[in-house]
């Protein structure tokens, strides 16, 4: 007996979207895509940045900018039997927010900072449900409780900046489900969240989808996450759909080379190839080369040359509670570890565990409350500023956000030349320019990048520029603070390969801070697990992942999406 075909809630047919760049040129963002979203089902839209995922969602919501966007007249988006593209703006507004709702990627830019979260949830209820202010407040409290925010009667009067990233995302979910929509669009709702919060949001969305009987379009660049939550998966690239099918089909029997490439690029817990395959390797059939199959050994024996030693490091922040009371918050509590020359120590933990504060304190970007940091036997924290200048260049940091860490008013050349000039590298500008061009080549960028500005580059390219800037100082230690967390899996693989190449060539030591446990497993020789400012477990990476001893470590490891691991075990990675 042939299984029944699920009834479609939303049907997209031949959707073509163009953006006008200027009077003569345009860019085709969507090239005639077709897909259905069945009722009571979750569909994942997967692909790299620029593939057209978010443009598809914004077209459904009617949020594409009218002044420079054109949708082909032959395109069709049918929701519940109604053609959306022929609706007036007022009709579309009444529909979107009530029957179709969207969770945006970045809650801090989506929530209004000058209004309380209660007001913002209540606005949706007053606008679409006709509730009074009192009714909306009662319903908003119930929604906050439903999405798992404790002390909802207090939090309802909080402003977005007074809540954590996970809580902000929960507020966005509460706003989206306030009117119990038939279709929920979630655009990268967990990208910047750590694995435990990711799991909570994932479970919350699945429970809400089941309880409300709604359909969900889940947009992500993380195939592992898609496999955890979706019934159907659509793989996009460059405005086209490369492959679509059930989640089982996509993970166990991918047909398209690009889908296979996305699966290969992601580090997994069961393998550590010498180099991670990138998209081009997979598309050219080179993924099974001996280079990709060779395992890279990791771990420390204890006999290595110690480059950095941290003893009992603590960092506290203070705030005022009234006129006379000063409250202390201990962000880092009595942390000790050693870093060997040419090795990588991974630091993992949830947001707020103290990972970034630890890294910034090591570089004296925060003043330590107590403890000592020894670099080749020299105590850094007590060192006068003038003497520390010589050591400052030897310990560099790659920040999480390449969009914020590069000066938008400087060309790439100026960004690279400035630190060399300050620290006296090179005899003159000509020699420094030659060194900068060599570094650009080293990180995989052409010399043409030298005269361009940061906004002209992609996120992955900007992170390469940030790494090149660090290399101008010829450092011995790089602190990588979530430096690949916001990158697509293919770009992430390129940057991880670059970091490994630099370590192999220059003997660099890394302090690799991340909430992505699969990436840390791939990069780190040793792992520190931090929880509430303390190191709760320390071990060689293979041993820690194979045999965790602390309960918190076990919780972290159990939160890793398992779909990619299952795909690997099924032979996709061979």
Radius of gyration: 25 Å
CATH architectural group of the largest domain: 3-Layer(aba) Sandwich
Q: Span from first to last CA? A: 35 Å
How many domains in all?
Answer: 2
- Report on the biggest sheet: 6 strands, mixed
Number-wise, the strands total 21
For the biggest β-sheet, the strand order reads 7-8-9-3-10-11
Mean pLDDT: 87
Helix fraction by DSSP (H/I, runs of at least 4):
25-40%
The CATH top-level class label of the largest domain: Alpha Beta
- The CATH topology of the largest domain corresponds to Rossmann fold
As an assembly, this protein is single chain
**CATH H-tier superfamily of the largest domain:** P-loop containing nucleotide triphosphate hydrolases
Uncertain parts: 566-574
How many H/I helical runs?
24
Choose one word for the global shape. globular
Percent in strands: 15-25%
Structural class, please?
alpha/beta
Describe this structure in words.
This protein has 574 residues and is of the alpha/beta class. The protein has two domains: 8-264, Rossmann fold (3-Layer(aba) Sandwich), CATH 3.40.50; 339-368 and 375-569, Rossmann fold (3-Layer(aba) Sandwich). The protein has 24 helices and 21 strands. The strands form four sheets. It has a six-stranded mixed β-sheet, with helices on both faces. A six-stranded mixed β-sheet has the order 17-18-19-14-20-21, sandwiched between helices. Strands 1, 2, 4, 5 and 6 form a five-stranded antiparallel β-sheet that branches. The protein is globular. Residues 566-574 have low confidence and may be disordered.
